[in-house]
Amino acid sequence: MTESRNHERMKARNIDVVILCGGLGKRLRGVVSDRPKPMAEINNRPFLDILIEYVAGYGFKRFILCIGYMGDVVREYYQKRSGSLTILFSEEKDPLGTGGALKNAELLIQSNPFLVMNGDSFCKIELDRFIDYHISKEALVTIALAQIKSASDYGVVTIDPSGRIIRFDEKLGNKGGFVNTGMYLFEKEALSLIPPNKNYSLEYHLFPMVIGKDVYGYTTKESFIDIGTPQRYERARQILADFE
């Protein structure tokens, strides 16, 4: 990056959490058709509840939910909830993709850095260590990476010995490797790279563009799950049935 940053040791309570909840979820509609994908039920509660509860357990207090498709379901559910968390909504009128939705929420984001999560995936990483790693690297973006034995359904991420991301590959058959968990720490300046009011992808547009720069991978051996297909949703239901 062009200039160094001296973040104080950031506390989770001072870091905003942006959760991307606006996807169309077409592949899951055969089993979940009456609500957006992040609201799919796991043990009689929305998957999104599990994400928020886990993150809040580290002290995060302020959540921005980027809603789109069937966004009223998300809004109505969380407006009725009481508690110590602040939950705000950033609504997209037309599909904007993961990057476009994040850009759309820019005016609501107060902290620097801020945490970004996909609303349909989960990895039980230690978020305090994730924050410390991001700051220690003076990263523009840090992506949480899970190591899996077979990355046949996911793109693979390659890092150098320092942790800097140097390559993104499409699906590589049954080979193992690091995969993107959909959890990120962003510096606000990264938002300037995303065009406004445009359908734009973090995964396919932004990240390849900043490859080799100050974009790092935080690796974990924790399992990674997502609910993007009926098969993965069923697996998530089994894994998270007794999650606390």
Q: Tell me the structural class.
A: alpha/beta
Give the tally of β-strands: 13
- Average the pLDDT over all residues and give the rounded result: 88
How much is the radius of gyration in Å?
17 Å
**CATH homologous superfamily grouping:** Spore Coat Polysaccharide Biosynthesis Protein SpsA, Chain A
Can you tell me the CATH topology? Spore Coat Polysaccharide Biosynthesis Protein SpsA, Chain A
Summed up, the domain count is 1
Topology as a string of helices (H) and strands (E): EEEHEHEHEEHEEEEHEEH
Q: Name the shape in a single word.
A: globular
Under the CATH scheme, which architecture would be assigned?
Alpha-Beta Complex
Strand content: 25-35%
Model regions low in confidence, pLDDT < 50 over at least 5 residues: none
| Helical run tally | 6
Q: What is the helix content? A: 10-25%
| Side-by-side strand order of the widest sheet | 5-4-1-6-11-8-12
CATH class: Alpha Beta
Name the assembly state.
single chain
Give a description of the structure:
With about 240 residues, the chain is α/β, with parallel strands linked by helices. It has one domain: Spore Coat Polysaccharide Biosynthesis Protein SpsA, Chain A, CATH 3.90.550. It is about 25% helix and about 25% strand. The strands form four sheets. Strands 5-4-1-6-11-8-12 form a seven-stranded mixed sheet, sandwiched between helices. Helix 3 crosses helix 5. It is globular and about 45 Å long. The N and C termini lie far apart (about 40 Å).
